[in-house]
Amino acid sequence: MRQIPILCLPYAGAGATFYRSWPAPPAGVGIVALQPAGREERYHEDPYAGLEEAVEDLAKLVTAHAEAGPYALFGHSFGAILAYELARALHEADVPGPDRLMVSGSAAPGVPLGRHSADLDDEEFVARVEQLAGYVHPALADPDLREVVLPVLRADVGLHESYRPTGTKPLPVPITVFRGAKDHLVSAEDCRPWADLSTEGCSWLEFEGGHMYLAEDPVSVLNAMADSVAVRPLPERP
């Protein structure tokens, strides 16, 4: 029986290691951590200068999985925006789009973020990001790693804060919205408009914790991912 791959995109400044360090997922699903440019094994590449560049690059990473059969996309925070725009781009191209979109810790596209952090100096920027997320990126505590991570984090935050949706037509894919119940950055009200972006239905799941709830309890998130796929089993493609 083929495992359903769940392709995962990290939050701003993070890389694929965040998901690679998770425990094994439940039977029937596999976690595939997508690696954006500019981090970890792709550190020699420049971070994305624009959303179109990011989506074009990430689409190349998805293609092999998309052509093999059903799959789901998952993204957290800025990664959720990337997952949504990637799903939209794939559905508009000849590459099969995801059969389920899971978005986590993210206001719906078009909901104003109401913050501007990308142009702050380094110390203010790091403090502001940590204040907003309620989470300290481990690499920022190491001076050597900080020099590598900071440009990527700043680029991602800049893209997120300047983001405008590329379209408003609902996608033909069910959406599951994940959120930490104590997320002070993204409210339940911010998440509700996700329902307007799918013709196939939208469901909501809340977890204990704040904006970075999934770093605290990945097992619960993995189980919810598997359940989300199982609610409407992804169809085999002819």
Provide a descriptive summary of the structure in words:
This protein has 238 residues and is of the alpha/beta class. The chain has one domain (4-111, 166-231): 3-Layer(aba) Sandwich (Rossmann fold). Helices cover 38% and strands 14% of the residues. It is built from eight helices and six strands, in the order E-H-E-H-E-H-E-H-H-E-H-E-H-H. It has helices spanning 17-20, 51-68, 78-92, 122-133, 143-161, 188-191, 213-216, 218-231; strands at 4-9, 29-33, 72-76, 100-104, 175-180, 202-207. The protein has a six-stranded parallel β-sheet with strand order 2-1-3-4-5-6, with helices on both faces. Helix 2 (51-68) crosses helix 3.
In short:
This protein has 238 residues and is an alpha/beta fold. It has helices spanning 17-20, 51-68, 78-92, 122-133, 143-161, 188-191, 213-216, 218-231; strands at residues 4-9, 29-33, 72-76, 100-104, 175-180, 202-207.
Reconstruct the topology from this structure.
Blueprint: E1 4-9, H1 17-20, E2 29-33, H2 51-68, E3 72-76, H3 78-92, E4 100-104, H4 122-133, H5 143-161, E5 175-180, H6 188-191, E6 202-207, H7 213-216, H8 218-231
Parallel strand pairs: 1-2, 1-3, 3-4, 4-5, 5-6
Helix pairs in contact: 2-3
